[in-house]
Specification:
With 373 residues, this protein is of the alpha/beta class. It contains 12 helices and 8 strands. 48% of the residues lie in helices and 10% in strands. It has a 6-stranded mixed sheet, with helices on both faces. A two-stranded antiparallel sheet has the order 2-3. The radius of gyration is 27 Å and the shape is extended.
Amino acid sequence: MLILYLGAGKTTLLNYLSDKDPSKNLNKQGDVFINGVSRSKIDYGRYVAYVQQEDVLFQTLTVRECLEFAGRMRLPPSVDYKARVDQLIESLKLEKAQNTKIGGNLVRGVSGGERKRTSIGVELITDPSLIFLDEPTTGLDSFTAFNVVEVLRAIAQSGRTVVSTIHQPNTETFDQFDQLMLLADGRTIYMNDASKAVNYFARTGYPCPEHTNPADHFMYMMSIESYELDAEEGEMLIKRRTEVENSYKQKIDSMQNNYENSEMKCDPDSEHPEARPINKVDENAYKAGFFKQYCLLLQRGFKNILRLPLTSYFKLISIFFVALLVVLIYGQLGNDARSIQSRNGVLYFITIGAVMNQAQGVGKFIIKMSNGF
């Protein structure tokens, strides 16, 4: 099943549903159930994968190496991670790019669509039942975006649930979605089959013009920017803007009420016909030991240094430059008691420089690990 979100508040909702809500001040009401079981009663993270909008992959690693690293870090020893990687590469249509580097600012690599599919594969390595994606087509052209969504549809047809936010897809991409949820001003104005949305809004007074992309029509229908402001300035402009905001709020209220009172409203207590029972997972099934994690990270770090020596050159140049400054400033110190304070300054300066240089690398490492592989 694929679910499409359009409008406002989609990323916030997705973060909350995936249990990765970054805001502690968000007012949350209600519970999240998985096949009738409360999220708080299960180890939710073992069944869920979350592909963020920003891809965080090492630019010097190949597609296969990224997937294998994720498999060795997250799969139990009893699972053949290489076979799982081969299966993912085939299902994600990455055969031609499997030995190509991810690429970045300093390294030429795979295309945007292949990079996005690699990010999806990193999360699919644990074979999750529920997959969340935050705007996976952002920054891609229409053809590449269609290929990515086509892969997601194939994943959904394999028995997984795929929930994706997306912003203004083209007609071909829109037709790939099974379920559609429209959000406007943080409120749900539609949630049902995507194929029924056009007829539903036509009955409620918002018909889709002929030869118009339904997604474009829904975006225009829900957007406050569709209201035109007059060119007056000062108080007249403020008054006009207030009128537009009130009119837009009434419009969204009407849309929400129409949906709440229509036969299209989904029953949250109803069970999906394709729902599957949750299988119990071993507590240590997806946890690599400390020594294994250290070795894998050390191996990846050396690969990154060897394949991108330019960054190492800059570090060496900075170290030599600092050393030259120390020699020029403190090179003529004497051997009497008056030079003791100056020698303390030299030691302090060298220590702080070394610590700060290494701390910058630790910060980058933490950011990488907190966002992905």
